Amino acid sequence: MTLATLCCSENGDQRKNIKEKSDINIAAVVGNQPVCESTDNGDLPSYVAVFIEKEVGNDLKSLKKLDKLIEQMTESKMQLEEQVLTVSSEIPKRIQSALKNAEESKQFLNHFLEQESHLFSSINSHLLTAQPWIEDLGAMINQIEEIERHLAYLKWISQIEELSDNIQQYLMTNNVPEAASTLVFMAELDIKLQESSCTHLLGFMRATVKFWHKILKDKLTSDFEEILAQLHWPFIAPPQSQTVGISRPASAPEIYSNLETLFCQLLKLQTSDELLTETKQLPEKYSLPASPTVILPIQIMLTPLQKRFRYHFRGNRQTNVISKPEWYLAQVLMWIGNHTQFLDEKIQPILDKVGSSVNARLEFSRGLMMLVLEKLAADIPCLLYDDSLFCHLVDEVLLFERELHSVHGYPSTFANCMHILSEETCFQRWLTVERKFALQKMDSMLSSEAAWISQYKDITDVDEMKVPDCAETFMTLLLVITDRYKNLPTASRKLQFLELQKDLVDDFRIRLTQVMKEETRASLGFRYCAILNAVNYISTVLADWADNVFFLQLQQAALEVFAENNTLSKLQLGQLASMESSVFDDMINLLERLKHDMLTRQVDHVFREVKDAAKLYKKERWLSLPSQSEQAVMSLSSSACPLLLTLRDRLLQLEQQLCFSLFKIFWQMLVEKLDIYIYQEVSKSRLYVGL
């Protein structure tokens, strides 16, 4: 029997006392270690045995600790009993307090319920008593509101009639400026009334505005046209031959004063004119940018030119020839040029004086441009499937656009001919025709006798790249295509043209590959070298274009399209976004691969020739040669001469036929192979033969 067992037996009375409280968890602190155990189900004896075993063990000298342990346990027991007694005495008080509070709350609640019931009865009684008053008062309020609406309606009518009477009085006294100002105020009231549901009032207001607008517009238009006639408007002749503006009559100051007065009065009618006039718009398929109507005085100035345009370029007139779009395009450009000086010097100061932001010359050009757009929209469907006529139309339109923007400063943000060409059916036809004629041009340039000859072969400074005529013509073709589509209004259309250019580059690469394969047996020949120069030139130019602002903008647009359609991996999108790659990378990689293959073939060819020429040198025994001390002058081995002559001839030949950058790559590749051959094969062979 162990000491722990004896201790457990001797302390049986203490174990019984502890077991009486086995329904709670005993927390004892022995030293610095907390001990928490459940004493249910007879676990206490085993716990005590373990505890004694741990504290005393088999060491009899440790028995002196028992008194101290008993004191600690007794003290812990007393503390636990005090806590239990404290809790047992506080809980009933708290319960009693909570019950008391609950009872008081119940009494308050009952009191409130009684008040609520009484108040509810009083309110219902009051509502029943007041119901007739409410109904009578509601009816009176409705009548008042109705009367107020009628009164407001009558006030509006009175105000409209008053304004109308004022305009009439001003016109009777020939005070047109005040009449125009009053009409402007009336038009602004009309705009404010648009949210009203009073349809009859709106109709009355609109009819009144329309009535006075027509009277004022007709009167001012008549006077304005009379002044313009005195100035010999429109100016059909070029500016150099115009009498007005160079030699002016004595009454010119008065004429220009009246011009300014009438112009300003017509400007006042702009609000009512926009309110009453529906702007003629082309169909939505042309996606024209939103723009305000041309200001009224400029509209009147454009009227005689519009009549002339429609007379000559519509119907069965001899000047209306569908195959001659240059006639009406040139006419419009001439009209713009003829009137620019007058508009800048006489009309623009008037607009600046009244604080208008309108540019007279651009406003005039915008009005004429609408005639061109209408004409194009009508003519294009008639010649859409005639390649020759359609291509001629596109060429003339592009020339017209170029002059319009560069010479006359017409903004690309305004409606222009490129919007008409961007219409889906027309645009797809344009792409088809562009591809067709480009392929025909490629056939022609490759079949030309001078296809592989450089145009600048006799000019050393210019012929650094040794570019054959076909390659230069092809890149010029791509450049022309870029100039043709760079002013398209949307990035999506430009990207479609970019894809066309990439297809043409790939097609040209395939054609060069086919011609190269025919020349494989003569890889050092003139044509083979010309093809290699062409490939190198196209790759170099495309790499330069990749840094061009226009193509960088297209790259950004392509990035947005690819990101939207999820057509590229995140890595590819990241490369595009960081400008690590370009829109031409695929084409450049294919061309570089072709260039490397062709150079490798040339290097292999020359290397084989050099190896053949080195056979005698390779067989010569070094040990049979005289020593260096025996030779008065060092000389070249005669057997090495064929090798070096072959190398010299081929390097000279290729230096003359390849551009500098290609020749540099070529000789570096060749030298690398020769190094390995001479030091690994020739040297070993000569040593072996010598031995």
UniProtKB/TrEMBL annotation:
Q: What span is annotated as the signal peptide, if there is one?
A: none
Asked whether the keyword Plastid is assigned, the reply is: no
Q: GO cellular component terms? A: Dsl1/NZR complex
Annotated transmembrane regions: none
**InterPro entries named among the record's database cross-references:** RINT1_Tip20 (IPR007528)
The UniProt entry, under Pfam families, shows: RINT1_TIP1
Any keyword Coiled coil? Answer: yes
Q: Which residues form a coiled coil?
A: 63-90
Q: Keywords in alphabetical order, please.
A: Coiled coil
**Annotated GO biological process:** endoplasmic reticulum to Golgi vesicle-mediated transport; regulation of ER to Golgi vesicle-mediated transport; retrograde vesicle-mediated transport, Golgi to endoplasmic reticulum
This chain belongs to the protein called RAD50-interacting protein 1
Q: Which organism is it from?
A: Delphinapterus leucas
Instruction: Write the lineage as a comma-separated list.
Output: Eukaryota, Metazoa, Chordata, Craniata, Vertebrata
